Amino acid sequence: MSAHQAYVGIGTNLGDRIQNVERAFAAVGQLGTILRKSSIYRTKPWGNPRQPWFANAAVLVETELSPRALFNGLQAAEKNLGRTPIERWGPRVIDLDLLLYDDLEIDEPDLRVPHERLDERAFVLVPLAEIDARFETMRDALPAAELADVVPCAARSVGSLGESELPMFPQRGHSAGERVRVLARFLAESDAVRVRIERPNEEIEVVSRVRASSSSRSTGKEPAEKTAAPRIDTIKADLVGIFRASRPAPMEGDVFESDRELGYIEALGIRTPVHSMGSGRLVAVATADGSPVEYGQPLFLVARA
Amino acid sequence: MIANRGEIALRINRACRELGVATVAIFSEADRDSMHVRQADEAFCVGPGPAARSYLNIPNIISTALITGCDAVHPGYGFLAENARFAEICNDHGLTFIGPKPSVIAMMGDKATAKRLVREAGVATTPGSDVLASVEEAQAAAASIGYPVLLKATAGGGGRGMRVVHDAADLPRAYAGATAEAEASFKDGRVYLEKLIFAPRHIEVQVLGDEFGNLVHLGERDCSVQKPSHQKIVEETPAPNLASDTRAALHEMALRASRGVGYTNAGTLEFLVLGRDAYFMEMNTRIQVEHPVTEMVYNIDLVKEQIRIAAGEPLGYTQKDLVARGHAIECRINAEDPQNHFAPAAGTVSKVVFPGGPGIRVDTHLYAGATIPPYYDSMIAKVVAFGDTREIAIARMERALRETLIEGVNTTIALCLEILSTAEFREGRYDIELLLKEPSRS
Question: Measured between beta carbons, which residues in chain B are less than 8 angstroms from residue A83?
Fold first, then answer.
């Protein structure tokens, strides 16, 4: 058996997306040897801004499997990783696309290689170009606006540090406030613009407002102190049921001056309202209207003033 | 839907798979990476780690079953398995509860009521009290029964909420401990008293009944090897050195008692046996941890039978069709330290090798890298050995346990091997005091 090189694209927009991508890396690793792995990118969804953001990545895998066997293996992994509640109603938890297989061209009803969307989608090309310079030209041909929608997930891309390598990283014993302060300190001591942490039970994002805005300024006095961005709260489901968004539906960017009802969870005939828990700006809608939700599922991310 | 975790959730999932039934698992935040979550068709988080907020969270569990379109709920053992209210709520929402009727669970689940009903069916029971309202009532009841007595949770099982009380001075503390433990484990702190029969054997009889009045027994299991906390650790079937008339009497008592309460689905009647005397102790209205030993000798899948019966199918066989063959032993492997009062060990399992080969069955949810959360029962695996004779089964179990390797947490493997090596066990003349005595090696 000879070894072949294949590129696999990974995409997910449900549940704990960072963890989903990492599980996908592991799953692809079962089908061959991973030679190169891209960073994990955060991608704004196409079309419908109410959809949650996507996490995208790409890997180069060396495999002895035939294109068909690899494709089947990816489909099985998709199914395996996608065994979560949402599967029945919404998009797949994870998409594993066979992008390229050596220099082969395959055109079968269910399997096309190179992948048909390869050259037109930023979320495919940006990670791909990161691990293979041959695709940089193709990437750079995409409209700048589309490329801007695909940004590295900051928490992972800052020197690709693991949690254990960052002694100042928030520990489990810390309160939410302490965690944000710890992150802000990290931000102040590093060159990072944004730090984002995702774990099964929490998402925290801290943005250096000063550096983010000052980076476009070429001269002028740099402010001495760096202010951390507002705290981001994750509004989570605290019961199992069907999530229904309020009408009009809350959208990313919505600002509320006071507490607002964002929707409700319907369970056993009872509607339990979901509130913004005070004023703030809606950063992300994490769960689509009408989706079944499990306990602890993120529904909205709200930035506090 | 599988309303449980750990090995029993996997066991139920396997039965469903073989029957072509799609499954929904529930899990707590602490069990996100558990094997049962991976094996099911769908999985829903129903709450945080502590069982009271997840595996006992009835609204979230029912809501999960409804939004995923489940037809039936298998409760496994522990958690909500013997909660009549839960069974009733399932039925009220059009979900078939895989078990007996809620009214029967309520009757038998209330251990004091169960004893009265069974007595009325003509089956001997141990002398005991009704449910106790206070320490004072407990003191009065204990005095009339005569010490030593056993305090037991009326909603209980698995040795939780149980205390041996030797004299009146010990009672207040034992009463407080038993009620608190029962409340924590079963959300029902009520306890009752039973006379402590000194050094009996704990033998239970498996029954299976359909909704058409057909009822069979599937022999007995000797569960006398128990930790000081009364949790079973080694079980076997058939019970060794049991007089054939006593065995027949046990089976007959089990059928009579079950018929008396209109029992359906799988159930187990526990008896205390002293010489040729047998007393009904309690009935477990669910699948038991140790059910595999029965499955091995009867060549039957009890969980599939439970599902079939719940789906309204008739048994399709009678008592005379059921013939046991050979001998089976189960050892429970718990993540705990027998050297340190069986303190449960939570942690990450770094390496796992389970035994195989002829006559060995392993039911486990463990895998290398698995984390054992601190919130739940410490059992991590069941090793079952089958042989044509008891000697063969013991020899297989010994070699299977020696093949087993679990690194990262303390386990009861060495303890099980030690039990198997005692003269009492090898000769099949042991009782529930075995682990309290100085071991004598053969």
Answer: 37-38, 40-43
